[in-house]
Amino acid sequence: MADPFVQLIGQQQAVELLVQAVKKNRISPAYLFVGPEGVGRSLAARCFTELLFTNESNANFIRNQLQNANHPDLLWVEPTYHHQGQLLTAAQAADKGIQRQGSPLIRLEQIRQITEFVSRPPLEAPRHIVVIEQAETIAEAAANALLKTLEEPGQATIILIAPSVESILPTLVSRCQRILFRCLDTVAMTSVLKRVGYQEILQNPVILSIAAGSPGKAIAAYKQMQNIPLPILQTASQIPKNYIQALELAREIDKSLDTEAQLWLIDFLQHFYWQNWRQASIINQLEQARKFLLAYAQPRLIWECTFLQLCQLQADVGNKNKSGS
């Protein structure tokens, strides 16, 4: 039987723990896959499920079912929005063109669905597998309901995926075996990006800096960069030289980019400016802009104030350098 973990690069310790659990038949009723976004946690959950569900005779069939997310004994849960009586994931909301406010959550209705799912006997596999993405978004009432399911999971293994132990309620953490996932080193990052066809990212130091050892984050940042109009990206990569340039750039950003793209642009500029000027005051000013955007302040005003302040900061540095010489 082919190794399902062969596609997971740079997480040897996590893979070894999961493989040994299966070999020794010591599979926990609940796991917490914890680590940075985009380093392979979800892929590991799918590989682990394949390992648990597969034998020599059904390997290809099971793999196809899991890839198409239609195995009857697998339930994959993502945070959702409430919209007109429906629960929609972020991707579904985007496809429907629904304006999103706030962040999606794992809701009580979804935990009830999990409870009902694991209460039935498995149909094809030896056990049910439930994977909860972004478990840090579990609402309080939903977390309390999930706790009861974790205490009596029946013939099921439940996998919570989260960025840190601290982001999950301690009562949930205490009932899970922790599997740690780490940022990838340069060799592993290079291998993953080449394998998935994004080797051009390796030539972009700003994107690699944003990624911080996360291939998934690198790819997401690269895709987002393609959606930013090139003139905006080029102009914003130079701190405005005067107030007129600052106001014009702020107007263009407000007109052309939605809030999500503006938040990404702040992240990009922080890394770009730091690599070029190494001035903490610039980074702090952009961080302040991020906070105001997240607080739903008027975007154009935020960018105007930000670029005017950056323009002044650069002028102050220039004057200081002149006086020092």
Task: Supply database-style keywords.
5-stranded parallel beta sheet, alpha/beta, two-stranded antiparallel ribbon, Rossmann fold
Care to describe what's here?
There is one protein chain. By secondary structure, this protein is of the alpha/beta class. The chain has two domains: 4-182, P-loop containing nucleotide triphosphate hydrolases (Rossmann fold, 3-Layer(aba) Sandwich), CATH 3.40.50.300; 227-324. It contains 15 helices and seven strands. It has helices at residues 12-23, 41-53, 59-67, 90-95, 108-119, 140-151, 170-173, 186-195, 205-211, 215-226, 230-236, 243-256, 259-277, 280-294, 299-324, and strands at 30-34, 74-77, 80-83, 86-89, 128-132, 156-162, 177-180. The strands form two sheets. It has a five-stranded parallel beta sheet, with helices on both faces. Helix 1 packs parallel to helix 2 and helix 9 (205-211) crosses helix 10. The longest helix is centred in the C-terminal third of the chain and has 26 residues, at 299-324.
